[in-house]
């Protein structure tokens, strides 16, 4: 595994992290034993960057991490998020960017995680009712108090990122980025490079499409939220699976899996991908991508196979898109 600094003057982290949404019942059911084994396998394979959020399984992911990794707390950089709770219609609950809520949410997460600090604390989604300057100020105070090592933002525009950074330096920006989601290349990635902010890529495998596990709608469990995602519906899914098959052919020629090829591409582009999985074997295979040295021609061919506008379907449904800061 290779390692990289998390933003300016941040801690060293593995270039491939672990996204812990998958160890909560978000993509359908998950056995606690399997989730525990997967977390431990990731750390044992050299992963030192674990990412979660308070809404993953209504606190389940944080609780599991706290219970499973409490005695290994000094072995990894821990990131969690607040401010992503939604109402029955899938719209963000207002007020989650207010300073008093920020402090309240952090204390609850610390309790579930069984730790006295988190290394990186993200605003999960921009609160449209609170100026980002107020939220950034509160997060800066938590940095000064030693309760968080640094703070990050998730799914915000370059404009919002700059406004927050002017109040207190942002350590990391997290957004969806993969061969199936190239929009961050236009403004966000250049802004992060300019400001010295780490770029963390969630859903780096196209929400599972580029991992090869999803080939038909029936492959998704009844409780899997992806059933409502346009990219997993009808003709969109068929087109996207076809693209994924072409990536798999290229990966086989390189002697790696599709997931490893995509993760290596992201690392080569300077991103820190945080793939998730519910299987220990997949966690080990994903971690191995952090030490791959593929020829640049393989990445060029990947970009030819999946050009920026190739994926079919929107990034999410209407309510999902309404919660993103694109201004």
TrEMBL record:
Keywords: Oxidoreductase. It comes from the Bacteria. Residues 16-305 form the NADP-dependent oxidoreductase domain. The keyword Membrane does not apply. Pfam families: Aldo_ket_red. This is Aldo/keto reductase. The lineage of its organism: Bacteria, Bacillati, Actinomycetota, Actinomycetes, Streptosporangiales.
């Amino acid at each position: 595994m290779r390692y990289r600094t998390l933003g300016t003057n941040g801690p060293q982290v593995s270039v491939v992290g672990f996204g812990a949404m998958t160890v909560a019942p978000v993509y359908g059911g998950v056995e606690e034993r399997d989730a525990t084994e997967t977390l431990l396998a990731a750390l044992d394979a050299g992963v030192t960057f674990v990412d979660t959020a308070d809404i993953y399984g209504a606190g389940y992911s944080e609780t599991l991490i706290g219970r499973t990794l409490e005695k290994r707390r000094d072995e990894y950089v821990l990131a969690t998020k607040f401010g992503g709770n939604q109402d029955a219609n899938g719209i963000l609950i207002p007020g989650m960017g207010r300073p008093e809520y920020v402090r309240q949410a952090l204390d609850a997460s610390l309790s579930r995680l069984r730790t006295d600090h988190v290394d990186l604390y993200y605003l999960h989604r921009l609160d449209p009712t609170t100026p980002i300057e107020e939220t950034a100020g509160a997060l800066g105070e938590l940095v000064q108090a030693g309760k968080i090592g640094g703070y990050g933002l998730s799914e915000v525009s370059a404009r919002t990122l700059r406004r927050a950074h002017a109040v207190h330096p942002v350590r990391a920006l997290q957004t969806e980025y993969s061969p199936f989601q190239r929009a961050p290349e236009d403004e966000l990635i250049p802004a992060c490079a300019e400001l010295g902010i780490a770029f963390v890529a969630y859903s780096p495998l196209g929400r599972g499409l580029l991992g090869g596990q999803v080939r038909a709608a029936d492959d998704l469990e009844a409780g899997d939220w992806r059933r409502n995602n346009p990219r997993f519906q009808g003709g969109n899914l068929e087109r996207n699976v076809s693209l994924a098959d072409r990536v798999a052919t290229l990966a086989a020629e390189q002697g790696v899996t599709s997931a490893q090829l995509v993760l290596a591409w992201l690392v080569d582009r300077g991103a820190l991908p945080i793939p998730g999985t519910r299987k220990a074997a997949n966690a080990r295979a994903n971690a191995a991508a952090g030490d791959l040295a593929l020829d640049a021609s393989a990445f060029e061919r990947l970009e030819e196979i999946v050009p920026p506008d190739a994926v079919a379907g929107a990034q999410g449904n209407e309510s999902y898109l309404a919660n993103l800061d694109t201004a």
